[in-house]
Amino acid sequence: MSPATACSGAPRVVKSPRVITTTAWRRRGLWSALVFLVIALLITLVWLAGRYEASQLQSRLERDVAEAVGDVRSALTRNRQSLQALQFNEPSPNDWIRDAQNFLRQHRELVRIEWRDSAQKITALVETPFSAPVFNRTTRTNSQSEIVHTCTAAKRVGGPAYSSSYFVMLAEGVGIEVMDLCLPLVTSGQLTGYVVATYSLPSMLNELISRKLTRGQEVSFTDGDGTRLAIHGLARRTNRIFTAQQLIELSGNTLVLRLDSWHGAPDLFPNVLTALVTAMSLALIAVLFLLGRDMRRRLKAERDLAEALAFRKAMEDSLITGLRARDLNGRITYVNPAFCEMVGFSAQELLGQSVNAPYWPPELADEYQRRQAIRLAGTAPPREGFESVFMHKDGTRIPVLVIEAPLRDEQGVQTGWMSAFLDMREQRRVEELSRASQDRLQATARLAMVGEMASLLSHELNQPLAAISSYATGSTNLLREGNFTSADLTLAMQRIAQQAERAGKVIKSVHDFVRRRDQAREAVTPQALFDAVMPLVNLQARKLWVQVQLRAAASLPQVLCDRTMVEQVLLNLARNGMQAMDRPDISRRVLLLEVKRHPNVDEHQLMFSVSDIGPGIAPDVAQQLFTPFFTTKAEGMGLGLSLCRTVIEQHGGNLGFAPNTPQGTVFSFTLPLA
Ligand code: ADP
To answer: Cα(260) to centroid of ligand 1, in Å?
Structure first.
C-alpha cells in the first residue's frame, strides 16, 4: 500500500479512465435501450389505436349490413302481403290492373306484376310507370322456363317462391338483373292462379336500402362467386376498404347483400384514445428528456466533485504540516499523510482513537488528557498555537507547534476540532546550534580576557621582578667582593622590598580588577534567580526531553549576590546535569532545582542544589572536576565548574558535589543572606 493511501482518511473517488469508459458505454447502452423501447411502445400504441379504429369501422359496417338485410326482408314480406291483397274479393281483371298500377306506383323496386291462371297463362299484367317496360315478348319468353320452375316450386310448397336472379337485356349492352316472385293463389283450397312479380335488383337496392347508406358506402347484391349483380352508391376509391356481407335467404333463392365502405387511413389523431396515448407518450419523452438533462448535470457535478476531491487530496499529500481532525468526543476522524509521517503511525492505527493516543509520550499522557478534557468542555484554544511534544512510533520525542480551530459543518454547528501540527525539530536544532556557538563565543571572550590579564600581569610584573633580580645580583656581587658598606646593602634591600611591594600592588590591582564587580551585588529572592534561568533551562530541557522540577520552600529570605554571575552558575550546573542524563538508557529524565536553608545550622546562608539522575561521577573524573580545561565532552571547554567555584567562593560560599540516590549527582552551593 502506498503511503498516500495508507495515511489518507479521505475516501478515494477518482476513477481510472478505463472504469470511466466502461461506465460511459454502459450508460449509453441503457439510454439507447430506453429510447428504443419508448419508440417501439409508441409505434405499437399508434398501431393498436389504428387497429381498434378499423375494428370499430368493421363492426359498424356489419351492423349496417344486418340492418339492411332486415329492411329488405321486411319490405319483401310487406310486398308479398300487398300482392296477395290484390286478389282480395276476386277482382275483375280491370280492377286488378288498376290496383296493381297503384301498387307499382308506390313500389319502384317492382318492375312488373302478372296475374296468371293456374296453367300459368297471363291473365293480366302491369308494368312499372317509372321506366320503359323491362320485358318484350322475346325476353319474357326467354324467362318463361324460369317462371314455370319458380311457380312449380311455389305450388309445391304452397307459398311464395323466388326465382334465381337473371339478367334482362334492355338495350345494346345495357340491362338489369331481375328476380321473380311467384305467389300461388288459392281459393277454397283450390289453386286458382299465380301472381308473378318481378323485382329489379338495382331498384331494390335503391328503394329499400339506399336511404340509410352513408357517404363512402356501396351496397350490392352478389352471387356466390362474388360477381356483382346489382350495385348502388359510388364509393370513393381510397386506399382502405371494409367489407361486410350477409345472406338473404328466400324460399327458392338466396341473395348475398354486400356492403363496402371506403375509409382513409386513420388520421394522426383518429380518436381520443390515440390522442391520449400520443399526449402521454409526449409527456413521457419530455420527462425522459428532463431526466436525461438532470442526469447529465448530476454527472457533471459528480465529475467536478471528484476533481475537487483529487485536487484536495493532492494538496493534502503535498502538505508538510500535519493535520488531524477530532470529533466532539475526542475521536480522531481524519489524519493527513504528513501527520502519519510525523508520528510514524498509519491512518488505520490512528482513526477512531480517543483516550491516550499512541503518539502521546507516557510521561505527559496525564497532562494531555487534562488538556483534551478542557478542549472538549468547549474552551477555545489560543489562535496563535501552543507547543507540545509527541512521540514517534520508535520512541523519539518530537516537539510540535499545535494550532487548533473548531471544525464546523455547513450550518455553522461545531462538529469537532481541526488541528495543524508543525514539526519543531529543525527549528530547535537551529536554536541549539546558535546557542552553542553563542556559548563558544562567550568562552572564547573569557579566554581572551584571561590571556589579556595574564599578559597584563606579566608585563606589569616584569619590571619589578627584573629590578628585584638586578638588586639581588648587585648585592650578591658586593658580598662576594667584600667591598661594601652596610649602608649599600641596606639600600639594596630597601630597593628589593620596594619592588616586591610594587609587584604586590600590581597583583592587588589585578585582583581588584577581577573583584570590581563587588559593586554589582544586590539582594534577590531565590525564586527571582530561578525565574531568571528557567526559560533558558526549559529550552534545553525540551530538547533533551528532561522534566524540570522546582522546589523552593515558602518565604525564604533574600540572598546578597551578583545575580548575573549566580545565574550563570545555576545555568552551568543545570546544563551539566541535563547533559549527563542525555543517554539512551535513561528514559525518565528529571532535573531537580532546589533551595532551602543551610542544613548545617548556619542561619546566615541558603543552600542551592541541582540534582540529576545521570550516571554519577567516576572517581578519576571527580579528582580533576574543578581543574580548568578539564572536560569529558567532545565539545566541552572544561571551564564551567572552575568558573562556578570561583564565583561562589567570591561570594563567600562553597561549591561541592555528592552522589544522588538512587543514582546521579547533586551539586550544591551556599550563598549569604542579604
Ligand atoms: P564542560 O561542561 O565544558 O565539560 P565543566 O567544567 O562544566 O566543563 O565539566 C567538567 C566535567 O565534569 C564534564 O566534562 C563532566 O565529565 C563532568 N561533570 C560535570 N557535571 C557533571 C554531572 N552532573 N554529572 C556527571 N559528570 C559531570
So the answer is: 131
Query: How is residue 673 annotated by DSSP?
Result: B
- The answer to whether residues 367 and 509 belong to one domain is no
> Do both 483 and 529 map to the same domain?
no
CATH number of domain containing 410: 3.30.450.20
659 with 594, same domain?
yes
Q: Cell triple for residue 199?
A: 323485382
Structure confidence by residue, pLDDT tens digits, 176-192: 899 999 999 888 888 88
Within 6 Å (CB) of ligand 1, which residues are found? Answer: 572, 576-577, 580, 612, 614, 617, 621, 625, 630-633, 636-638, 640-641, 665
pLDDT value at residue 310: 93
Q: How many domains is the chain partitioned into structurally?
A: 4
Helix (H) or strand (E) holding 425: helix 425-481
The answer on 632 and 533 residing in a single domain is yes
Task: Please report whether residue 308 resides in a domain.
Answer: no
Question: For 328-349, what is each residue's pLDDT tens digit?
Answer: 888 899 998 999 999 999 989 8
Let me know whether 495 and 364 are in one domain.
no
- Per-residue pLDDT band for 168 (boundaries 50, 70, 90) equals confident
Q: Looking at the predicted structure, is the pLDDT value of residue 114 above 80? A: yes
Question: Does 140 lie in the same domain as 234?
Answer: yes
Structure confidence at residue 381 (pLDDT): 63
Residue at which a domain ends, from 226, 241, 262: 262
What 204-210 contacts at long range (C-beta under 8 Å, 24+ apart), as own/partner pairs, is 204/72, 204/75, 204/109, 204/230, 205/230, 205/231, 205/232, 206/108, 206/109, 206/232, 207/75, 207/107, 207/108, 207/109, 208/68, 208/71, 208/72, 208/75, 208/109, 209/68, 209/71, 209/72, 209/257
Q: Which of the listed residues 496, 514, 532 is the one where a domain comes to its end? A: 514
Strands (E), 201-279: 217-222, 228-232, 241-250, 253-262
| 3-state class (DSSP) for residue 232 | strand
Q: Could you tell me if 343 and 197 lie in one domain?
A: no
pLDDT, residue 383, reads 66
Q: How many CB atoms lie within 10 A of CB 88?
A: 8
> Per the domain annotation, does 442 fall within a domain?
yes
CA of 632 to the centre of ligand 1 (A): 7
pLDDT at residue number 111? 92
Helix (H) and strand (E) counts in the chain: 16, 22
**What distance in angstroms lies between residue 656's CA and the mean position of ligand 1's atoms?**
13
The parent domain of residue 178 ranges over 71-262
Instruction: Answer for the pair 178, 166: CB distance below 8 angstroms, yes or no.
Output: yes
Q: Is residue 58 part of a domain?
A: no
User: For 286, phi and psi rounded to 5 degrees?
Assistant: -60, -45
Pick the atom of ligand 1 nearest to 664's CA.
24
Whether residue 398 lies inside any domain: the answer is: yes
- In this structure, the residue with its CA closest to atom 7 of ligand 1 is 640
> pTM of this prediction?
0.43
Atom of ligand 1 at shortest range from CA of 631: 14
